[in-house]
């Protein structure tokens, strides 16, 4: 400021000197006035340059000025630079938060106070069928038309979640999502969604499992109790007694099979994974499966005119070793073969194949000329006690636990 005042005072003295030299006292006053006006317009010009620079926002093109205007320019430039650094840091933090939300396995939707979508991640877009760009600022109530969600939103009680049908499912395998709203801030809301399809399926399987176990064990027990009561109360001849005992043995065998399969399943689920250091020759494993399959085939078709036709991989084509438990590997492969044997009619063909993929993985497959399995049953084949046909499975001795 001292420099600015000195410069102004110097201009006044110069104007007054020129006025005195050119005229009298009036000339001195006129010179001072002219100098003041010149100073004013110069100062106005400098201020206009600074204003234009601020309006353009090009901080790297600051005007070269001296004095107070130069200091104002420098201070403004530093202040803007600090604000830019802070804004960039805030943007980086926001980007990190959004990236973390984008990577979340759950759906995340940010809603404003009017219930309009401000932002959503890809998982939420998949759950509800949103388009993140197109549906921005669209009301969530207009996009999610499920009656249960409408009632949930209208009730304004968000202490619990609501389960809806999500997008991307099929009539046979619907997608189920859990949705819950969490109010925050000034009327805004955070909507979280997660896929609970597997949980609902597991719960349904648990209920079916309990019901099936009760049925599978209660049925043969009921039959056994009836036969025991018959043997105790009726005077049967030896032939009738033998027939009843044979039927009792069949029911006992059936119940024993169910219990054994349940114990095996429980052992497999409760035991640690087999060590990958246990290596076994593939040829030995497949040869054991072939012997079991052929033996079961002879037993199943012993009263038939034509046996099964078999096709196994040639011994010389099976090379290498496989890691895992030999007992469990053989059980898994033999289950596939035994299913083919049980459901392929006499004279049918069973083809067993083994080949190595380009990435080193092995593929074991069994194909037969039996009735096959409808596509809608395939996703449920590994469920406990699940049978494509109950009568057909029981006739063949199946418990519905082999593939589980």
Describe the model.
The chain has eleven helices and ten strands. With 404 residues, it is of the alpha+beta class. The protein folds into three domains: 2-96, no CATH class; 104-195, Beta-Lactamase (2-Layer Sandwich), CATH 3.30.450.20; 274-372, Heat Shock Protein 90. A five-stranded antiparallel sheet has the order 2-1-5-4-3, with helices on both faces. Strands 7-9-10 form a three-stranded mixed sheet, covered by helices on one side. A two-stranded antiparallel sheet has the order 6-8. A hairpin with a 5-residue loop joins strand 1 (107-111) and strand 2. Helix 1 (2-22) runs antiparallel to helix 2, helix 7 packs antiparallel against helix 8 (238-270) and helix 9 runs parallel beside helix 10. The longest helix is centred in the N-terminal third of the chain and has 37 residues, at 67-103. The chain is elongated and about 140 Å long. The N and C termini lie far apart (89 Å). The model has no long low-confidence stretch (mean pLDDT 77).
Task: Describe the structure concisely.
This protein has 404 residues and is of the alpha+beta class. It has helices at 2-22, 25-56, 67-103, 122-128, 140-143, 147-155, 197-233, 238-270, 282-300, 326-343, 390-395, and strands at 107-111, 117-120, 162-165, 176-184, 188-195, 279-281, 309-311, 321-323, 349-356, 362-368. It folds into three domains: 2-96, no CATH class; 104-195, 2-Layer Sandwich (Beta-Lactamase), CATH 3.30.450; 274-372, 2-Layer Sandwich (Heat Shock Protein 90).
């Amino acid at each position: 400021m001292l420099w600015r005042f000195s410069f102004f005072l110097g201009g006044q003295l110069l104007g007054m000197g020129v006025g005195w030299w050119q005229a009298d006292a009036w000339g001195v006053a006129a010179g001072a006035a002219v100098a003041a006006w010149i100073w004013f317009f110069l100062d106005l010009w400098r201020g206009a340059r600074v204003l234009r620079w601020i309006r353009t926002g090009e901080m790297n093109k600051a005007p070269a000025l001296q004095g107070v205007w130069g200091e104002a320019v420098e201070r403004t430039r530093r202040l803007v630079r600090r604000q830019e650094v802070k804004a960039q840091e805030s943007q980086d933090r926001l980007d990190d938060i959004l990236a973390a939300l984008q990577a979340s396995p759950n759906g995340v939707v940010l809603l404003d106070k009017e219930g309009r979508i401000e932002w959503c991640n890809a998982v939420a877009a998949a759950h509800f069928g949103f388009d993140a760009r197109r549906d921005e600022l669209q009301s969530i109530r207009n996009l999610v038309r499920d009656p249960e969600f409408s009632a949930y939103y209208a009730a304004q009680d968000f202490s619990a979640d609501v389960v809806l049908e999500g997008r991307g499912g099929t009539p046979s395998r619907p997608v189920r999502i859990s949705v819950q709203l969490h109010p925050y801030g000034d009327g805004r809301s955070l909507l979280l969604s997660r896929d609970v399809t597997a949980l609902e399926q597991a719960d349904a399987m648990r209920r079916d499992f309990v019901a099936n176990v009760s049925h599978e064990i209660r049925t043969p027990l009921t039959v056994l109790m009836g036969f025991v009561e018959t043997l105790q109360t009726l005077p049967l001849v030896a032939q009738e007694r033998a027939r009843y005992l044979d039927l009792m043995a069949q029911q006992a065998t059936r119940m024993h099979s169910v219990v054994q399969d349940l114990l095996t399943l429980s052992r497999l689920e409760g035991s640690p994974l087999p060590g990958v250091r246990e290596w076994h020759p593939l040829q030995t494993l497949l040869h054991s499966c072939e012997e079991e399959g052929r033996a079961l085939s002879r037993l199943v078709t012993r009263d038939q005119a034509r046996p099964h036709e078999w096709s196994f991989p040639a011994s010389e084509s099976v090379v290498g070793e496989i890691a895992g438990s030999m007992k469990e590997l053989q059980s898994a492969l033999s289950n596939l073969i035994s299913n083919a044997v049980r459901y392929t009619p006499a004279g049918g063909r069973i083809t067993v194949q083994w080949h190595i993929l380009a990435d080193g993985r092995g593929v074991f497959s069994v194909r037969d000329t039996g009735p096959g399995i409808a596509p809608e049953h395939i996703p449920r084949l590994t469920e406990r006690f699940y049978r494509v046909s109950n009568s057909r499975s029981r006739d063949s001795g199946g418990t519905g636990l082999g593939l589980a």
